[in-house]
């Protein structure tokens, strides 16, 4: 479904960050990407979504056979690729419900009626244990960290993408919220849904069981395994990965 070959991504002020990355994600698969701070995980996610500050300088990315890199971010979204919009700031005057209505209709061929939209939102908010009054609040205005994350997964459930890229959706969540977020992702799970879950902790992977775990180091995926690799990393840290796969040990 998603095929990344020898991808290179640079940022203007930071030089090359992703340095020849390969990754294949099949239909229905959940892939976790772990790796030390600064290894390029978020840069990869941003490049996949077409963030303008991240310049692809080499390699290829195809999604269902289409050249993803040729497409504008909104076209990628319409193809069914999702990344939670992490607005750094609040959006006064735009309610959660309004934002979701616009987002959902922009990826659909046919717009949902107001009633259909309302029902869908109610249903998904129930799954995420979000209070109905939340829909009328302005986007991110005064949201707690956990509320922002729940809201991201609410977007996911509303948009029903084929591929979701979740960058540290688990950070800053309390134990209950972590389970609610995991439930949201698991609700999507099925033969038509794939995800790349970027995380620092194996904890969330106990709730969202990945099919594959990859370790990113210095702009590349250096080793991959099953879900036991996440526990191994948590127990042993990244030093052994650096020793085995770090700069100087490979071309
Ligand atoms: N827009 C940018 N401008 C300058 N440098 C950048 C930019 N984006 C990323 N970088 C640099 O690229 C490197 C990788 O950053 P990235 O955010 O991709 O790492 P990460 O693996 O997501 O780390 P973390 O685990 O801390 O989230 C860092 O050194 C970072 O400072
Ligand atoms: Mg990051």
Automatic annotation (TrEMBL):
GO molecular function: ATP binding; ATP hydrolysis activity
Cross-referenced SUPFAM superfamilies: P-loop containing nucleoside triphosphate hydrolases
Domain named ABC transporter: residues: 2-243
Keyword ATP-binding found: yes
CDD domains the record matches: ABC_FeS_Assembly
Keyword terms of this UniProt record: ATP-binding, Nucleotide-binding
Pfam families per the UniProt record, alphabetical: ABC_tran (PF00005)
PROSITE patterns: ABC_TRANSPORTER_1, ABC_TRANSPORTER_2
Keyword Nucleotide-binding listed: yes
InterPro entries: AAA+_ATPase, ABC_transporter-like_ATP-bd, ABC_transporter-like_CS, FeS-cluster_ATPase_SufC, P-loop_NTPase
Domain of life: Bacteria
Protein family membership: Belongs to the ABC transporter superfamily. Ycf16 family.
Official protein name in the record: Fe-S cluster assembly ATPase SufC
Species this chain originates from: Rubrobacter taiwanensis
